[in-house]
Amino acid sequence: MAKDAVRVLVTGAAGQIGYALVPMIARGAMLGSDQPVILHMLDIPPAAEALNGVKMELIDAALPLLKGVVATTDVVEACTSVNIAVMVGGFPRKVGMERKDVMSKNVSIYKAQASALEQYAAKDCKVLVVANPANTNALVLKEFAPSIPEKNITCLTRLDHNRALGQISERLNVEVSNVKNVIIWGNHSSTQYPDVNHATVTISTGEKSVRELVADDQWLNGEFIITVQQRGAAIIKARKLSSALSAASAACDHIHDWVLGTPKGTWVSMGVYSDGSYGIPAGLIYSFPVTCANGQWSIVQDLKIDKFSRAKMDATANELIEEKTPGFINGKSEDFLSK
Ligand code: NAD
Ligand code: LMR
Predict the structure, then answer these.
(1) Which of 135, 217, 252, 275 is the most exposed place for a label (fewest CB within 10 A)?
(2) What HEC string does 222-254 produce?
(3) Catalytic residues
C-alpha cells in the first residue's frame, strides 16, 4: 500500500539553498524513494513571485513523489500540519562577516516562526534549523516553542561532518563512503571542533583508524581542522555566495538519518539539545556524535576525550554560551532566555 504523504516545510524556499533543496526532497533524497511528500514553501512578500516561480518549476519537473505544493508568505499556512520543518529562511553571511554578525537579523524571525510551529505543526514535528547562527537560532526556536519536545529541535552540522569526511577522502585518495565516524563538536562556526580521533577508513584489509592511515598528526591537528572550520568562508570567497548545494544535500542527510536511522556502527554529527554529556553544559544546542533509530537520536557515549580535544570542545561551548548571553544579541539587552 502506498504511504501517506509527509508534509515538509522549507522556509526561505525562494533562496539559493531552498532552490537546491526542494527538488532533492521531492525526488526522495530526504525521506526515501518510496515516500510521497507535500512541500510547504515559505518566503517573505518581496520574494513571493520568485517563490511562485519555484512552484512552477516543481510542477514542470513532473515528480512522481510530489503530491502537492503550498507556496505562501503566510507563516500559519506554511506551518499547518507539517511533519518536518527545515528552517532555511534568513539573512545569509556575506564576505567578511562572521556568522554571529547575522544573529540579530535572524533572532526575531525565529521567535515568530517558533510560535507558528508550536501552534500549527504536527505535534511530533521534527525541526532542523539551517539558517545561521544555526545553533542559537535553534535555541531561540526551542525557547519560543516550549511545547515542542526539545529532542525534536536540532540544527545542521552535518555539512561540517560531510566536509570533514571529504577532506579525509581527498587526503587518502579513498572513496568518501569508506570514511566514517568523524565528529563535529559544538557550534556551526569557526570554533567548531572537527575530531578524527575515532574516525576510520575501510580498506581492503578491514577498518583502519584515520590517524594511523594519515600518519601526520601535524596535519590532522592543524590544517585539517582549520580547513573544515573555514570551509564556509572559503566557499563564500570563491562563489561570492554561501554554500548551497552542499548545505541542501547535508540537510537531506540529517533528516534522512534521523527519520530512517544510521547504519550499524556509524554515527553522524547533529546539533542537539545538550543533556550534559561530555561535560557540555545542559541547555546548549551543541553538535555531538549521534546514532539514530526509530526516529530518535542518541548521543554516542563513553568516547575517550584527550586533553587537546577537551580544550577545543570547551572553547566552542564557551562561544555558544556567549551567543545566548543577554546583551550579545543586537548588542543590547535582549534576554530571550528569560523572556
Ligand atoms: P538566501 O538569501 O539565498 O535565501 C534566504 C531566503 O530566506 C530568501 O529567499 C529570503 O527572502 C528568505 N527569508 C528571509 N526572511 C525570511 C522569513 N522571515 N521567513 C521566510 N523566509 C525568509 O540564503 P541562503 O544562501 O539560502 O542561506 C540561508 C541561510 O542558511 C543563511 O542563514 C545561511 O547563512 C545559512 N546556511 C547555513 C548552513 C549550515 O550548514 N548550517 C550552510 C549554508 C548556509
Ligand atoms: C557554511 O558553513 O557554508 C554556511 O554556514 C555559510 C557560512 O556562513 O559559512
Answers:
(1) 217
(2) CHHHHHHHCHHHHHHHHHCCCCCHHHHHHHHHH
(3) 188
